[in-house]
Amino acid sequence: MKIGIVGLGLIGGSLGLDLRSRGHEIIGVSRRESTCKTAVQRGCVDSASVSMSSLAATEVVFVCTPLGLIVPTVKELITFLPKTTIITDVGSVKTPIVEAIHPHWQNFLGGHPMAGTAETGIDAAVTDLFVNRPYVLTPTPTTPPEVTNCVEAIIRDLQCQIYFCQPPDHDQAVSWISHLPVMVSATLIHACNQERDRHVLDLAHKLASTGFRDTSRVGGGNPELGRMMAEYNQEALLKSLNQYRHDLDRLIELIKLKNWQALEENLQKTQQQRPDFRVCQDYSRE
Ligand code: NAP
Questions:
Q1: What is the mean pLDDT of the chain?
Q2: Against a cut of 0.90, is the pTM above it?
Q3: Ligand 1 mean position to 241 CA, how many Å?
Q4: How far apart are the CA of 7 and the centre of ligand 1, in A?
Q5: SS in 3 state form for 133-167?
Q6: 3-state SS assignment for residue 132
Q7: Cβ of 8 below 6 Å from ligand 1
Q8: Which end of the chain, N or C, is surrounded by fewer C-beta atoms within 10 Å?
């Protein structure tokens, strides 16, 4: 197929590498000329330019720009496309994107490949980024089935695990397992650094080991991404944060009351529940 990719960064570039290796012709569009050149040199795309008019003859376009630019990008893109072209995106929040695009383009399907690395930009693009990773598609009742089938067939070839759900369900689920952890982890780093005794703080910095490394990792990531999670997924994130605060208050109460039995029972329950989260199954005994 002739496939367009707008936004040649980590996700767009990686998609390009894999889709090209499956025999598709990939036409890239990015903001900077230098990125377009690198994308061609690295084999992410067959050709690339900074002009969306180059996508006029594509059958499917993946929009892989930063989250806040997906809707404006699609609005510009559709001025160059025939009505038959299918557009899909990779944004990590779905409801505001799907709601904003549907009135403008019938053949749109929201998507979210749940894969990434700590790096960004075209130099970070890698092959097989999506293998065995979840890829969520969010068709709505008005999405034509042939649009869903077409995007599904393209991404199934990447060996990812495809899930279908409604945009609000996606947003609440990723709020629990991705956006809440970022906020909790960032708060952990901040709270530790509130220690007023300089000597104790220095000691804590030096003693921090694997437990702190694991629990602080996502809170020490890209601040721009964290801000976007909150900005575009505000409602779901607030629901998750309020529940978290409620649970934390309960924990504080148990410790205040020296109710060690109830505390241990709580921890036994969470120990048993952790393997329910698929990614944790191999690590449930760590
Ligand atoms: P990224 O590495 O920063 O790539 C985005 C690229 O978009 C940039 O390299 C930039 O290329 C290009 N761009 C910026 N503005 C543009 C514009 N107006 N028109 C065309 N291209 C433009 O970011 P990413 O991590 O790939 O994320 C892209 C999307 O994937 C986001 O919507 C994010 O929510 C989603 N996502 C990310 C991850 C993750 O873990 N990173 C996972 C799943 C989904 P230039 O060099 O040309 O400026």
A1: 96
A2: yes
A3: 27
A4: 5
A5: CEEEEECCCCCCHHHHHHHHHHHHCCCCEEEECCH
A6: coil
A7: yes
A8: C
